[in-house]
UniProtKB/TrEMBL annotation:
Record CDD domains: HTH_MerR-like
Name of this chain's protein: MerR family transcriptional regulator
Keywords for this protein: DNA-binding, Repressor, Transcription, Transcription regulation
A GO MF label: DNA-binding transcription factor activity
Organism: Cloacibacillus porcorum
């Protein structure tokens, strides 16, 4: 076995780019010797450092921390490092379990959404719901996406996961009555739990519910159907109707797969 290897050989063997090896050299972590022609030669004595660097970088240790450890490697320092690694791995595992829970929730929501029958009127008893909102005239899908992002940015500390966030919007009823679809006065998020910092509350009570599939250009027609159903069945409106997006462009780019719920509080 040779005592020295070229940078190309080390790069291939360890799967580390030549630029990274040169960077480690500039930091003083690796000290290759130079041949007369200027080629770097890495000794077997230093190669063990590459495994340590790779493993610690995976745990987000900084190069300064790695350099400090390698400069004074001892059993005591190794034990301290291993304990730190164990703490970091514990944090990662907790993060991964939390992420797994969020993904499982989203899978359940989408699986249930695909089973929902569209075009059916129901009356639901809903709990009190705390909301944050952005009041803004919205007349295009692109404007809606931008408004949702602004609202998310404003309240992101309250949002556990944007993929699971319940998003709703208040259509412009003035435009709806004129038959103009896809125009809104506000977008809102329903928060997962009660908070002192909210914009409005959807009161507890009975809500007329109607799901429709497909694009939003039909929502004036669908809204008219909801209002007609309420009138024909003696349901008095106790608030403005709103939409909630069960399946939207967070989940699919196929408009025919969109699923939207219209709700309005009734008596």
């Amino acid at each position: 076995m040779r005592n020295y290897y070229k940078i190309s050989e080390i790069s291939k063997l360890y799967g580390i780019g030549a630029d990274s090896l040169r960077y480690y050299e500039r930091l003083g972590i690796l000290r290759p010797r130079r041949e007369a022609n200027g080629y770097r030669l890495y000794s077997l004595k230093e190669m063990y450092k590459l495994n340590i660097i790779r493993d610690l970088r995976r745990l987000d240790f900084s190069m300064a921390q790695i350099k400090e450890y390698l400069a004074d490697q001892s059993v005591g320092n190794t034990l301290e490092l291993l304990r730190r690694e164990r703490r970091l791995l514990g944090e990662r595992l907790r993060e991964l379990r939390a992420r797994e829970e969020l993904i499982s929730e989203r899978i359940a929501v989408l699986d249930n959404a695909r089973k929902i029958r569209t075009g059916v009127f129901t009356v639901k008893n809903m709990p009190e719901r705390f909301c944050v909102q952005l009041c803004e005239h919205i007349a295009r899908d692109e404007e809606m996406d931008f408004a949702v992002k602004k609202l998310h940015r404003r309240h992101e500390e309250k949002i556990r996961d944007f993929g699971n966030q319940v998003i709703g919007a208040f259509p412009s009823m003035e435009n709806m009555r004129r038959g103009r679809s896809n125009v809104y006065d506000a977008v809102f998020f329903i928060l997962e739990s009660e908070t002192p910092d909210y914009d409005f509350i959807l009161p507890a009570g009975e809500y007329l519910s109607y799901f429709y599939g497909g694009g939003y250009e039909q929502n004036a027609e669908r809204m008219a159907e909801v209002l007609a159903y309420a009138e024909n069945n003696g349901l008095r409106l106790l608030g403005e109707p709103f939409e909630m997006y069960e399946i939207d462009n967070r989940d699919t780019m196929r408009e025919e797969e969109f699923l939207t719920e219209i709700q309005v509080r009734v008596e």
